[in-house]
Amino acid sequence: MSDTRGGPPAESPEHHALRAAVAALATRYGRDYFTAAVRDGRHADELWEEAGKLGYLGVNLPEEYGGGGGGITELAIVLEELAAAGCPLLLLVVSPAICGTVIARFGTEEQKRTWLPGLAAGTLRMAFGITEPDAGSNSHRLTTTARRDGDDWVLSGRKVFISGADVADATLVVGRTADARTGRLKPCLFVVGRDAPGFTRRPIPMDVASPEKQFELVLDEVRLPGRALVGDEDAGLLQLFAGLNPERIMTAAFAIGMGRYAVARAADYARTRQVWSEPIGAHQAIAHPLAQSHIELELARLMMYKAAALYDGGDDEGAGEAANMAKYAAAEAAVRAVDQAVHTLGGNGLSSEYGLASLITAARVTRVAPVSREMILNYVSHRTLGLPKSY
Fold it and tell me: Which pTM does this prediction carry?
C-alpha cells in the first residue's frame, strides 16, 4: 500500500515519532484483523490492550495519573494512524478523549485517582451518555433528570446510541438538575457504574461494521452517592463542552484516517490494474478524483490540528468553532474518498476481499454523529457569520 503518512506543516519530531510508532502498531493488525473481529462478533481487545501498554490510549491524560502528559493533538494522531491502517478504535473518541478529559479538567482528586490511571492504561473503559430518543441534536430537550435526595443523587431517564456500553466499567451520563434559584434545568455530569441498581442496557442493531456496539441505556431511579457528580453543579455547560469539543476533533481524526485508508487502497489498485495498454491510474477520470480526495483530506487535517492546538492551548471558544469545522470537513472528505475508492475498484470495490464496501456506511456515520452536518452549519452561520437563528 502506498504511504500517505505525514503530519501537518512543522510537525514536531515528537509528533512525527508518535505517528510512526502508532502506524507501525496499526499495520501489524490492519484491516483484516478489524474485519475478522466484526465478523466474529468480538471486540478488538488485543489491539486495545497493546495500545494501552504502549501508552497510546492515555497520551492526552496527565502524567501524574499515568497518562502521557500530552493533549488532544497527540490522541488525534493516534486515532488517525489507527484508522489509516484500517483498524480504528471508536472508544478512543469516548473513553480517553471525552470522559478522560472531563475528569482530568473538572473531577475531584478522588475521581482522578479512581479513573484516570485505568483509562490511560486501557484497563478501565468509560462510555458517554448524552443522546436521547426525543432530544436529537437539541441538548436543551434532554429529559434525563437528577434530583437530590439527602447526600445522594437519583437519576432517571433514557439514552440511545451509546457506544461500547457493554465493555464500559462506567458511563459518564449527562443529566439535568434543577437550579435552586430559578427552577430551570441545567446539565450536569455523573459517573454511573455499570452495575448500579436500576441501570440497564440493551443493544441497538446497527448496519455498521464496527467491533464497538451501540446501546440504549435506561436509568430507573438510579441512586448515586454525592461524589458521583463530576465538577461543579453550576458549571455544567462549560464541563459538557470540554468533552464535546474533543469528541468532534477525534471524530475528524477517525474520518480522515478512514479516508486515507480508502484512497491508499484505491491508488494501489489503480497503479497496477491494467485492462488496456496502461494501468487504469493513468487515466485522468481515475487519477483526478483520487487526487481531489487526497487534497480534501489534507485540508480537513489542517483544520483538525488547528482545532486540537486551540483546545490544548486553553482556547475553548476558538476550539469550538474550529472543532465543528474540522468535523464537518473531515466527514465530507471521508464520504467522498470512500465513494471514489469503491468506484475505482469497480466490482472489486464491493467485495469483501478488498475491505472497502464496509467503509461506505462507516464514513456516512461521521456525517451524522456526534452532531449532524446541518447543526454544524447552523453553528457557523449564527456564531461565526452572525446570522439569526432558525430554531
Answer: 0.95
